[in-house]
Write a structure and sequence with these properties.
heterodimer; A: mainly alpha; 69% helix; globular; B: 432 residues; mainly alpha
């Protein structure tokens, strides 16, 4: 019985971590399949988290925050596109710049708006309406007020309020990513832009347009991931809360050989490692007490390196990844 | 690209970085305006409390010393076409190596039975230990990059996180100061190993000055009387008191020496040639007889050694007497700033030293804003992380958007100035 409970709580905890990784990883898949390396996933997650928590606080609606986060992250995606596509800059450097900017901007603006050391106000405070957060699409309290009988029926309440809809959306995003990349003309061309940009150019499609489309989609997905982080997973933004998840997502993309479903598996694996870390860190009994907590803290990162070193030897990145496309002269 | 007259080197290496820097500063100025603060006040603070203040200059040089090392660490890997962003973790391991050796000499692990050797033997050993520590921590990602093809960027980021766990583990266990349990800090390193710093001179002078001050007081003078009758003395004492913790230390000169060595190594030795050749074209390098994986591995290790050396300044050269210890903060973020330093310095040691001095002063500016901003009238309420935003902008404009400025300058030179500022007729690239 105990083991069943442990497995259940681990699975639950894994499900809470994984969506962040999945949204970022799908962003990474789109971006990298089009030939754009995106180290900036990390920064865009952070920016998305900050914007959604801030806008949700002012607007009173988590959904408004979500769309704002998507919009702002798209802008940062365009910045990445401007640097890498238009001005042929180094992709890793541009991504790092976005990550530094994200840390600096969120803390500076957060400090000046709320004077709480960079934190945003708690969205689940006593005077909140419930609409600020995205855990459920319709706040449970609103449903209970409308149908008083529901309070006793937790399961029905969860279903009706669409509790955890962003988690479901993450998995839907995987299917959609697969569909768009593998079943549509847009996806075919997008993948070719990352492999043989000349071919796409010869076929009369614009390499630049497809690459910009890819960074735009990546930005939007990171925005959702960030919103999940700060308005669904917990109820406020704290500085550097993305905690290297963007990099882990990128590792999951490499682990998944740039394919959506395999990348999702990587995300689930890394999510499980984080869940294990938190679980083992809070265990105070038996032989586990002898093991220092820092070991568990480091565990996910160590295993990411092991996984990358052990399994990815044969993986092949998109051929034109990280390379600017310079049109041949007419 | 038919008309590819390149920019004149003076423009390319002087004007272009300057313009890029100005762009970054303009955006930060805009940010300060957007959050409702006064950018003029922020600049004033930079001028008065960093550039014009002895303490500010001292601190800037202190940070710059670390940045020269971390900047060179990034630049060396860049020359091989690699991106080492693990400077932060490698710096932590530099500190761990240094502290490990120091603790052996202090008898920390052997119940207080140490070896009493003179400082001029131990301090060089500590430097070597720091370099080895950093190199060791870089070796694993370096090996994985060179022989297994794991992306160095991802592995070094993971290794930063792992290093943080390890340093915390050591500082709450084996390395912890037994007299102060609960505080994750190593024991204080003995004074004879500290690096000579500018503050030492003032501390030395302060002994005389304070004795003189005491003599004045004993002769029945009040404080204002002492001040008014001996303005020169009063000034000297005030200066000595403010400067006694000035952290600019002798390892700045060491950093400059290493920078010269860096130049010689990269441009004047066969190893440097091998490194640059794999950065330029791996296939060609392989055909030229370069062992590409081994060169890659060695480059990352050397890069880690440079990052490890950065910790010597933080631990042995610290300005505050109680801070000659290993802390979990490691390089306090200066490992990451090294990326901006390398980019702005165009991976050349001369540029790196200049960029390190600039970023050192900006780092100090962040500290000053945090410390003094709220006491100004009107208040200057800016978080010090604005320096990280500025750092990001510098990386963006000097690194990723570099061509934007280059193209703009070239367009102006070609179309408005009739070719002024362009290099002589050197055709590069394909002909039309």
């Amino acid at each position: 019985m105990e083991i069943f409970e442990l497995v259940f709580s681990l699975a639950q905890s894994t499900l809470r971590f994984t969506p962040i990784l999945i949204f970022a990883a799908m962003a990474g898949v789109f971006s990298e399949r089009a030939g754009i390396i995106d180290i900036g996933l990390e920064g865009k997650l952070l920016i998305g988290a900050f914007v959604s928590a801030t806008v949700a606080h002012y607007a009173g609606f988590g959904l408004v925050g979500l769309f704002a986060a998507m919009a702002v992250c798209m802008v940062f995606g365009w910045l990445h596109g401007l640097a890498t596509i238009t001005f042929r800059g180094d992709h890793v450097i541009s991504g790092l710049a976005i990550n530094f900017l994200a840390v600096g901007l969120t803390k500076t603006i957060g400090h000046s708006l709320f004077a709480k050391g960079g934190d945003t106000p708690n969205l689940a405070g006593p005077d909140s309406t419930g609409w600020e957060r995205l855990q459920s699409l319709i706040p449970k309290q609103v449903l209970i007020d409308a149908f008083p009988g529901l309070e006793s029926n937790k399961a029905l309440l969860n279903v009706l309020s669409l509790h955890g809809w962003l988690i479901a959306l993450a998995f839907i995003a995987v299917v959609l990513t697969w569909f768009v990349l593998n079943q549509t003309r847009f996806g075919l061309r997008l993948r070719f832009v990352g492999e043989e940009p000349q071919a796409v150019d010869t076929a009369g499609a614009s390499v630049v347009a497809y690459r910009f489309a890819a960074v735009t989609i990546a930005g939007a997905l990171c925005g959702i991931g960030g919103a999940y982080l700060s308005t669904s997973n917990i109820a406020s933004f704290t500085p550097k809360m993305s905690a290297d998840m963007g990099y882990l997502a990128l590792a999951a993309v490499v682990f998944g050989k740039w394919r959506p479903f395999y990348a999702m598996l990587g995300c689930l694996l890394f999510g499980l490692l984080f869940a294990l870390k938190n679980r083992l860190n809070s265990v105070n009994e038996g032989f586990l007490v002898q093991i220092p907590g820092q070991l568990f803290e480091a565990l996910p990162y160590v295993l990411v390196v092991v996984v990358l070193a052990g399994f990815v030897g044969s993986a092949r990145a998109p051929k034109a990844i990280g390379r600017p496309y310079v049109k041949e002269r007419e | 690209m038919s008309k590819s007259r390149e920019l004149h080197p003076v423009i390319n290496f002087g004007l272009v970085p300057l313009l890029q820097l100005i762009l970054a500063f303009l955006v930060v100025g805009l940010l300060i305006v957007l959050i409702g603060e006064n950018p003029v006040q922020a600049v004033q603070l930079y001028v008065t409390d960093v550039l014009m203040s002895q303490v500010g200059i001292g601190q800037s040089i202190f940070y710059a010393t670390t940045l020269i090392f971390t900047g060179m660490a990034v630049a060396l890997a860049f020359h091989a076409g690699l991106f080492n962003i693990g400077g932060e973790g490698q710096g932590m391991f530099g500190g761990i190596g240094l502290t490990f050796v120091a603790l052996i000499f202090m008898g920390h692990f052997t119940g207080g039975v140490g070896f009493d050797l003179p400082g001029f033997i131990i301090v060089p050993l500590l430097f070597i230990a720091a370099a080895i520590g950093g190199a060791a921590w870089a070796a694993i990602p370096g090996y994985l990059q060179a022989y297994r093809g794991s992306h160095l960027v991802i592995t070094t980021i993971m290794f930063n996180a792992i290093a943080f766990s390890i340093i915390l583990f050591l500082l709450t266990g084996w390395f912890q100061n037994p007299d102060n349990p609960g505080d994750p800090k190593s024991p204080l390193l003995p004074e004879q190993w500290w690096l000579w710093k500018v503050g030492d001179y003032y501390q030395y002078r302060l002994v005389d000055l304070e004795a003189k001050y005491k003599a004045f007081k004993d002769s029945g003078l009040s404080v204002p009387e002492i001040r008014d009758q001996n303005p020169a003395f009063w000034e000297a004492r005030a200066q000595a008191r403010s400067m006694k913790n000035s952290a600019a230390n002798v390892s700045f000169l060491f950093a400059l020496l290493v920078a010269v060595g860096f130049w010689f190594f990269v441009w004047r030795t066969k190893w440097g040639y091998a490194i640059r050749s794999i950065g330029f074209n791996q296939t060609a390098a392989r055909y030229g007889g370069v062992n590409v994986p081994r060169t890659m591995f060695m480059t990352v290790c050397l890069s880690g050694a440079l990052a490890g050396l950065a910790s010597t300044n933080i631990i042995l050269g610290n300005g505050s007497d109680s801070e000659h210890v290993l802390r979990e903060t490691g390089l306090v973020g200066l490992g990451f700033v090294g990326i901006a330093v390398a980019l702005m310095g165009r991976n050349h040691p001369f540029g790196i030293v200049i960029a390190a001095l600039l970023f050192g002063s900006l780092f100090q500016w962040g500290e000053v804003i945090q410390l003094k901003g709220q006491f100004l009238r009107p208040k200057l309420n800016i978080d010090k992380e604005i320096v990280v935003a500025l750092q990001g902008l510098v990386v963006l404009f000097t690194g990723a958007l570099s061509l934007m400025v280059v193209w703009a300058v070239r367009w102006v030179a070609e179309n408005l100035l009739g070719g002024v500022g362009l290099a002589k007729e050197i055709e590069t690239g394909e002909r039309a």
